[in-house]
Design brief:
four-stranded antiparallel sheet
């Protein structure tokens, strides 16, 4: 079955309250997908973001982002009054997320909602949720309460008894911070209540949701604090951290800084923590894209004290045994392998063993020496997921306007691009016509945006994860045009 989808981060949805949310704008987007003949909505990771606002550096692998809780839906349930949030300066520009404003104001509003929650009929549901999520939620709630107590400091800088999770220190903190932990726990109830409703709304309209799972977790996260034995830590601190080696794009490589997994130790308990993590993700999504899939074959380990990735070295990952164990415990799951970057025959073999579809990115197909590139659409296998570009790439127009003349001329000849139609439409038509069983385009490319619509420029901070669609972007005319192409290319 040939399908098509749109990559649209939740934070990029339009809303008056500073960031995209799980409310009416999300439902409107699902309706747009349905009218446009799409099958899938791909989102980015939805965890609570930390320094740098990256969804790939979250405070938890399990928690949802409090910013995504829709305030209008809370008001409709009697948990807020509109005047309590309508006049707050959520952002200076409706087209950009202002994370500083969200951090300054959003939690005060959510505290009002949570204080009222306990006086409504929803409280019984909230308590049931807290009990059902007891495996991760109490640690996350305490982690966030302690971060507030210590001024946002990373947990490695907390007093040693808490840093090392001494039993008496944890018990004392839970007692002293009970009101705060209750707040953070109930925020999660509000998030998952709204997400569950949205997912059901999408299902009823024939839209499946593709989630995104970062392979690594943030060092400053409830994951590492509550499960230190699952990571390569000494006294709560990493000896080596994650990244990727120097290449043509970066002479110093990329230093991500995430803690590395203790794969040998994990194997002994049948990857229990990982199995819980993946199983939880499939409660949220229909399909899961696993980021940095090659890290399961081999991962790049960099000395923690280094400030570049030059001195890292490759170490073996868990390999196919991990995925064999996953299927044994969880059954067959719908997974997309992000198999981009530096690939060895071992990575290709692991992909063949798992049977997961890999990714093809059209923007990679036309550089110098790429005449026989596997990223050229006529070479795609049917069993793959094809993208014009991902969240880490420029938009189609941004790419074509900034790449070399040779690359642009090659792309224009291959895809028969012309300005009258719009280069972005020529690129998307090429992708939709390809053999790939699933083709995904970014919403920015449907809107014909240039580099101003770029989501992320890797290895930079300060201007990423901010783009938002305008309130009038999802037009009926656009939906009809896309749907016509879906019929043409039988998607």
């Amino acid at each position: 079955m040939r399908r098509a989808g749109i990559l649209m981060p939740v934070f990029s949805l339009p809303s008056p309250w500073g960031i995209g949310t799980l409310g009416q704008a999300a439902r409107d987007f699902v309706d747009f997908l349905h009218r446009a003949g799409q099958s899938c909505w791909q989102v980015l990771p939805m965890g609570p973001t930390s320094y740098g606002d990256s969804p790939y550096q979250s405070f938890s692998s399990f928690a949802g982002n409090p910013y995504f809780i829709d305030l209008d839906d809370l008001a409709a349930e009697g948990l807020l009054e509109r005047e309590e949030y309508a006049d707050i300066p959520w952002s200076e520009s409706p087209g950009r997320v202002d994370y500083a404003a969200l951090h300054a104001h959003r939690f005060d509003v959510l505290r009002l909602a949570c204080s009222r929650l306990q006086k409504t009929d929803l409280e019984a549901q909230a308590r049931s949720f807290l009990e059902a999520e007891a495996d991760w939620l109490p640690d996350y709630a305490l982690f966030m309460a302690l971060k507030d107590r210590y001024g946002g400091k990373a947990w490695q800088e907390w007093p040693e008894p808490l840093r090392l999770r001494e039993r008496k220190a944890l018990a004392k903190a839970r007692k002293e911070l009970q009101e705060e932990t209750d707040f953070w726990a109930r925020v999660q109830y509000l998030f998952f209540r709204q997400w569950t409703a949205l997912k059901q709304y999408a299902k009823e309209r024939g839209i499946s949701i593709i989630g995104d799972l970062p392979i690594y977790v943030a060092m400053d996260s409830a994951d590492t604090w509550a499960n230190p034995k699952q990571f390569q830590l000494e006294d709560g601190r990493p000896v080596e951290v994650s990244g990727c080696p120097p290449d043509a794009f970066s002479e110093d490589g990329q230093l991500w800084g995430n803690p590395l997994f203790a794969w040998d130790s994990m194997k002994k308990d049948h990857y229990r923590w990982w199995m819980k993590r993946i199983d939880f993700q499939f409660r949220l999504y229909d399909t899961l894209r696993i980021d940095h899939f090659r890290g399961f074959e081999a991962y790049y380990a960099i000395p923690a004290a280094d400030d570049t990735a030059r001195n890292g070295r490759w170490r073996p990952g868990p390999g196919y045994g991990f995925f064999r164990e996953m299927e044994k415990q969880l059954g067959a799951r719908d997974i997309i392998a992000e198999d981009l970057g530096y690939l060895t025959e071992g990575v290709h073999e692991l992909l063949r063993q798992t049977g997961f579809p890999g990714m093809k990115v059209l923007e990679f197909a036309f550089g110098a020496g790429m005449e026989d590139s596997s990223y050229q659409p006529h070479r795609y296998p049917a069993h793959c997921v094809a993208y014009a570009g991902t969240h880490d790439n420029d938009t189609v127009l941004g790419w074509l306007n900034t790449c070399s003349r040779g690359e642009r001329n090659h792309a224009k000849r291959y895809m028969r691009l012309n300005r009258n139609e719009g280069w972005n439409w020529g690129v998307m038509r090429t992708l939709w016509a390809s053999p790939a069983e699933l083709a995904v385009v970014q919403m920015q490319d449907l809107l014909g945006l240039g580099s101003e619509g770029r989501i992320n420029l890797p290895s930079t901070v300060g201007a990423n994860w901010q783009w938002r669609a305008s309130a009038d972007a999802l037009t009926e005319k656009l939906a009809r045009k896309v749907r016509a192409d879906m019929r043409l290319y039988q998607r």
